[in-house]
Structure formats: structure tokens, C-alpha cells
Amino acid sequence: MRVVVNIFDKNKYNNKLQKIGECHFKIVAYEVKEVLRDEATEKFGTENIDENNEYLILHFENGDIYAFRNSRVNLFREWIITHGKPMGMPNNLIDN
């Protein structure tokens, strides 16, 4: 599936954030999971610690994975970006 990840300058749960980037990926799966600080430091390094311990993890066809601080990104299916929300699809299914 093709996805778009919007990257924000601050925690997305706060007001007045600004989109600072956008990445397009072709992935096979994704997950959002809680990773505690010690494990996150070991896996992702000290500069990529999410203040809410939330990580968006993308899985690629070749077995690679890539992690984002979930509090600072939104993930959208690329089809929705280019074609709009399908009729009848609830908004909560496309927000994140």
C-alpha cells in the first residue's frame, strides 16, 4: 500500500503545530505501538524519543522497518490524498 506521512514540528496533540515535511512510502504494513523510554533509546537512539512513548512503525517488502515518533506524524493512505475519502467511510478511519 502507498502511504503519506505528514511530519509536524511539535506534538500533534497540542495546538498551533506546523507541518514541516511529507514523505511517501510503499509499505506492506504499519503499526502504532507503545515503546517505553529505555527500549526506545536502545532501538531508535536518544534523539528519537517520543514524549508519549508512541511510535509509528512502517514495514517494507524487503524486511526493513522505519520508525517515526507517532506524536509528531500522521499517516494517510495515498489513495485518500489523491482521490478523497470514499463515500460512507467514517472520518475516524482516515485520521491516523
Briefly say what this structure is.
This protein has 96 residues and is mainly beta. It contains 2 helices and 6 strands.
Question: Can you give a write-up of this model?
Answer:
With 96 residues, the chain is mainly beta. It contains 2 helices and 6 strands; from the N terminus they run βββαβββα. It has helices at residues 37-44, 78-83, and strands at 2-8, 19-26, 29-34, 54-59, 65-69, 73-77. The chain starts with a strand and ends in a 13-residue tail after the last helix. The model has no long low-confidence stretch (mean pLDDT 82).
Q: Major β-sheet, in short?
A: 3 strands, antiparallel
Strand content: 35-45%
Report how far apart the termini are.
Answer: 15 Å
Radius of gyration: 14 Å
Order of helices and strands: EEEHEEEH
Provide the descriptors you would attach to this structure in a database record:
96 residues, mainly beta, 3-stranded antiparallel sheet, 6 strands, flat
What secondary-structure arrangement, pairings included, does this model have?
Blueprint: E1 2-8, E2 19-26, E3 29-34, H1 37-44, E4 54-59, E5 65-69, E6 73-77, H2 78-83
Antiparallel strand pairs: 1-2, 1-6, 3-4, 4-5
